[in-house]
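tmp note - UDP-glucose 6-dehydrogenase
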Amino acid sequence: MADVKRVCCIGAGYVGGPTCAIIASKCPDITVTVVDLSQARINEWNSDKLPIFEPGLDDLVKQCRGKNLFFSTEIEKGIKEADLIFISVNTPTKNYGIGKGRAADLKYIESAARKIAEVAVSSKIVVEKSTVPVKAAESIAHILQANHRRGVHYQVLSNPEFLAEGTAVKDLMYPDRVLIGGELSEEGNRAIMALSNIYQHWVPKDNIITMNTWSSELSKLTANAFLAQRISSINAISAVCEATGADVSEVAHAIGTDSRIGPKFLQASVGFGGSCFQKDVLNLVYLCECLNLPDVAVYWQTVIEMNEFQKRRFARRVIEALFNTVTNKRIAIFGFAFKKDTGDTRESPSIYICKYLMDEQAKLAIYDPKVDHEQMISDLTHPSISDNPTRVQELVTLTKDPYEAARSAHAIVICTEWDEFKDYDYQKIYDSMLKPAFIFDGRMILDHKQLQKIGYHVETIGKRLSDDVHTGKSTSVP
Ligand code: UDX
Ligand code: UDX
Ligand code: ADP
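out:
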């Protein structure tokens, strides 16, 4: 089965959609069909307004859609026709039963595997793309083998995706590496080669790494755990900087020039968000507990705890600077997405900052260039965030204009590093705010000196900009 002609991807989400758009554009000889249970989602993929925002994705989809890229709810047809099937469904953290709050919920993966077993009439290569716990491929293989029809054979591969949201197209076009894990057998090797051949349409062979399935699965969890750990480590240091007068950007620069450490992923922030980091670290913690390695579990758990600490610490600083009370004070929140260039809000630190401020009865005016207002309300009224949805509606105003959000506000809180935030007319904004006017730059993206010149009281992560929070007069620490 070295020659894959038809690919089906189950799950038209943040991973499945962009991945298949790239495969279709780079492999004109392959027909790619992305299927999903959600008719609404498929309709959006077939419309002018795609369900996800990713720079460069619109053009790519327009170029291939209807030629060799199709979006459909005909899951059974997609499976039947395909030589190779990606499983790219969601694997959220379980919110019930055994492993609640830590283990990955594999029900969507299992249901996709059962569907394949139910309808396939020819042999398939089944590729797990979703981030899953170690040994998930084994479970998929088990389900397939226990239900297979005569003459139908399966090879299950692990092919974790390393794309980051906001740069998905670039990451897929020029991946640092492609990782393929498979069974160490002749059939396993053949399947690995078949998938590798797809990637070799645009990825140099040397950048395609093959290994055993479990190593591949564990590598994905480990990569995300290491990345999350770097952010928690620099965020921990940011707290030390604020207490001592050191500047976390200077520290990050200094350590990043050590080639053993490297400069990337050392940006202190309000905390990391996104659908992967927390979920995958918790997965790793749960795995270690199940393997009777409690010390290892505790080690990784602290990465999450430091992230919680950072989000809480930042919100507390806002409250303290605003004279220890934010009750009924209008506070503009700039940014609701978990990072720039995406409309995704999953685990966004902004949600938690808003929660902590709402717990203190602050009135929030929220602006984000890409996040839908219904999404913001859905996140803020989620039972884990608020037990009083009516109160949330009373406290929160959603705006389509940042100047409107800041008007008559006591403070602006930057939660996402959108580029446009750097280009606003901060003099005009200052003139419309209550005084003293505060800016809390949770992403270290603004020109703090300039803002201080205008008259703002500025606070940021990992650096003391002012000594006297109560006069609103800022004095730079040399
Ligand atoms: C370290 C720092 O590297 C150096 O920059 C600083 O100035 C002093 O501390 P050193 O302790 O001399 O230098 O050696 P290093 O190569 O860092 O190794 C330290 C320990 O870590 C050794 O026991 C080494 O075996 C171990 N190590 C290092 C690992 O176990 N794994 C590794 O990947 C690297
Ligand atoms: C991550 C991994 O990067 C990607 O390889 C994997 O496939 C999925 O998970 P993603 O969550 O989309 O990607 O975005 P990423 O750029 O990693 O950012 C995650 C969070 O960390 C964001 O909230 C971001 O703002 C934050 N972050 C990132 C920092 O706070 N500081 C940094 O230096 C880098
Ligand atoms: P990710 O970020 O991992 O891509 P998403 O939540 O964005 O996750 O997308 C996962 C998609 O998978 C959703 O659109 C969901 O409807 C779809 N899905 C989940 N289970 C199945 C299934 N059994 N068959 C088809 N699609 C599924």
